[in-house]
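Q: What would this chain look like folded?
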Amino acid sequence: MNYRHLRGKTAIVGVGHAGLGEAPGYNDMELLTRAAHAAVKDAGLRMQDIDGIATSSVSASMWLMSVVETLGVRPTYIDGTCLGGSSFMSYILAAAHALESGQCNAVLVCYGSAQRTSALGRGVITNARKVLDPQPYEAPYEPMNPPSSYALAARRHMHEFGTRREHLAEVAVAARAWARLNPEAYSRDPLTIEDVLAARRVSDPLTVRDCCLVTDGGGAFVMTRADRAAALKQKPAYILGSATAVWNRQISCMDDLTVTAARQSGALAFDMAGCKPADMDVVQLYDAFTINTILFLEDLGFCAKGEGGAFVSGGAIAPGGRLAVNTNGGGLSCVHPGMYGVFLVIEAVRQLRGQAGARQVADAHLALAHGNGGTLSSQSTVILGTADTL
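A: My prediction, written as structure tokens:
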């Protein structure tokens, strides 16, 4: 089964965000609402035009109903599946089906989290999850997750392929270099490989600079059918390919700590889009930890397995490098409010519109955004293109 018949039939027509970094006084729903209204306005639509909703939260199992109630919409299409950080990209293919079938006309994908400034400590939520969402092969050992799970993958990659700590640090330094071009990024001070290596150790071999930020933030985007998109306010970013794959929940249940389900989601998305990794002008990868970027570059086909460390060396994914990766600064330096995936899509769309300011990649026509959820568990790949790629 492939979905080539959906290639280019839908588009992202509006994006918006709110409260990036620190948003004291706002809660999750308020940040989501601000971002949602910004995205709908960006599209040149009204909230009453929205008849499809896709959203989730790791804190509330019936979150979608609260979002519908708060926004005052009456959707004919809903999706509240939670796959962690990749959720907001996994919604895209299902939304494309719903739009193309006529089930709905405008789908709003939205998220908000005030995890940095919330009065509710993250430790409380973590302890609750141990009861509500137990992981039987790991919980008894009380790992410091998620960092310890990603540290396992990093150590295995270093053991198996000779990847060095400096390679991981290259990923963090490149992300910071992009963030320094983005006035919306949370961390913009200079960062060197030496800084990363000398930073506080979190879970061997990862230091705090190998780990994503903990910020507030809300993000949203709007999808419509392509025929309607062409007449709306903004230059559409067409959905050329999209796929999601899940192979495991716990890191201990991965067949191979160096191979993720991105290999499956990426292959399916490229097949639908009819293009290949070398065609991509801009790449947004879910960099919750530095090892993620290396694993996803390999599993999505930008380089061979085991060569990710060498691929990112020498500033290759920084501004001016061979491949523009995480141009907003990523989860490592721009924003990471718990689940980051929606911001990958927003940045990809901005790059294709030519609205990324000092970090704009010249002549960007094809963009890949790849989401990750859980502990290398769910993987979702989306390929977007401008009108001349249809």
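The mean pLDDT is 96.
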